[in-house]
Design a protein that fits this description.
Layout: E1 3-6, E2 13-18, E3 21-24, H1 28-40, E4 46-49, H2 69-78, H3 82-88, E5 95-100, E6 112-115, H4 130-143, E7 147-149, E8 152-156, E9 165-171, E10 174-180, E11 182-185, H5 192-196, E12 212-220, E13 244-249, E14 252-260, E15 265-273, H6 285-295, H7 297-304, E16 307-317, H8 320-325, E17 338-339, H9 343-355
Parallel strand pairs: 2-10, 3-4, 3-11, 4-7, 5-13, 11-17
Antiparallel strand pairs: 1-2, 5-6, 8-9, 9-10, 12-15, 12-16, 13-14, 14-15
This protein binds flavin-adenine dinucleotide.
Residues 24-30, 49-52, 62-67, 152-153, 186-190, 192, 214, 269, 314, 317, 340, 342-344 line the site of flavin-adenine dinucleotide (FAD).
Amino acid sequence: MVTVIQENDQKPDIQEQEYDVVIMGAGFAGVCQARHLLLKIPNIRVALIDPRPEDRTDKDLKIGESTVEIATLFICKELGLYEYAIENHPPKYGLNFHWAKDSLNTESVNDYYHIWANRQPPMASIQMNRSKFERDLIAMNKKMGVTYYNGRVTDVDLTPGDEIKTVNVKVGSQYFNLKTKHVIDAAGRKFIIGKKTDNIQLNPEDLFGVNTGSVWVRIKNVDRNLFHDGYDPTMGSCSHYYATNHWFGHGHWLWMIPTEIDSKELSIGVIYHRDTISDDQMNTQEKFHAFLKANHHVLYNLISNSESVDFHYRPQVASFPSFVNLVKTFIDKNLSFSIIPNMRLSFLLAAKVILN
Ligand SMILES: Cc1cc2nc3c(=O)[nH]c(=O)nc-3n(C[C@H](O)[C@H](O)[C@H](O)COP(=O)(O)OP(=O)(O)OC[C@H]3O[C@@H](n4cnc5c(N)ncnc54)[C@H](O)[C@@H]3O)c2cc1C
């Protein structure tokens, strides 16, 4: 039932809708939360809001593809996506770590010391193509009855307890007031509720001295022979290419994650300590390539011989200590809001649910 409220002659019409739960943000946390609710509570009315188009174009590609085992367990068991996960996202055969024996000589994998995953991990996990996952989950959620608002939350009232709250949404030139008892903030780094309640701490002293930046590229049609003359233990059949590979050097580490099987697509990026490596040395694709040429020639060769998909630069990234320390208060008895600040935290919450 839609009520049209005419506020006055100047202001636009505002449509009012009612839901049991309103989820702000349809990233990993939002789409999983919606599906979880739909599976657990029959006939629940859920609204999902996100400004990104539901078919997630290349522009909407997101980072964060290597899932930990508990996340895949949640995706399979709690979200019922066993076959979907295997059929749509590359497998993850553990973690490999590589350190150059001599930082001036990094031509091949054999120029590195390693820690290899020597067996397939006992619990499966996947390397997730994030835009595909979000696109697919939005479609599944819509089939199960979710209303998707392809727009932006402009405000939310924080009426305490079980009182009805209002989430203001703008979709193009249309305005909506969504009435609900339960609001979930899954808007990632926008921290809609966290900012409103002054519950976010990003002061340098709260981050334990972590001051990191990141750049990454996506490439496709890569030469997957990279590891073929490397470590090959008897009885180990896991592909080192389909692991999450980490490469280390002074003041930085790199990830290398396959994200598409057919197009042989990889995400390669660096987290660098800004006290050691300045943003000026990293902030363009050319500079990133030059950095690889100087520090990890083997990866420079890999990138040079493949097709470029895109390049991203984020001068400030939160790191693990800040996840823990990010919010001052996780649970406020006076509010019935859930705060899901990031993917890993939602895994921890999921883990708690599973273990209970
Ligand atoms: C460099 C880097 C590497 C990483 N690597 C990994 C990794 O390998 N593995 C891993 O598990 N994690 C990784 N992460 C972390 C991971 O990316 C995040 O934890 C994850 O994306 C958080 O998901 P989310 O759904 O909370 O937020 P997001 O994915 O950011 O989704 C938030 C959504 O909210 C929407 N939104 C924003 N504002 C509004 C608004 N006003 N109204 C409505 N919607 C709004 C956005 O459009 C977006 O779709 C990495 C992070 C970085 C920076």
